[in-house]
Design a protein that fits this description.
single chain; 106 residues; mainly alpha; 87% helix; 0% strand; rod-shaped
């Protein structure tokens, strides 16, 4: 389980325990208790949304860093030429071979 999943499970469990404890031990009844539960749920939702945004921002930074690192490694490497360059070289070599074969058989 990754850190984000653990956080969400923990927050959800804490929320559920808080709701149960709040209902059981609340001195208020009815509408006031429902309002308190609603407010607590809204607060938890806001906290989860904030944490979600933080995790998304972290992922964006990691993706950007990995992309930059990959581009850097490709630029530094001795990667073969592009397909078009290779195609051109093959065509030139084939033409040279044809010329040599013609001159050898003539």
């Amino acid at each position: 389980m990754n850190d984000m999943s653990k956080l969400l499970v923990t927050l959800t469990a804490g929320f559920a325990a808080g709701v149960v404890a709040g209902v059981l031990f609340a001195p208020e009844m009815g509408e006031k208790t429902r309002e308190n539960i609603k407010n607590k749920a809204a607060d938890l939702g806001d906290e989860i949304d904030k944490q979600y945004q933080v995790e998304i921002d972290k992922l964006k930074v990691k993706i950007s860093n990995l992309t930059d690192e990959l581009r850097s490694k490709v630029a530094e490497s001795d990667m073969p030429e592009t397909a078009e360059e290779l195609k051109s070289k093959v065509a030139e070599t084939a033409q040279e071979i044809k010329s040599k074969v013609k001159s050898a058989t003539a």
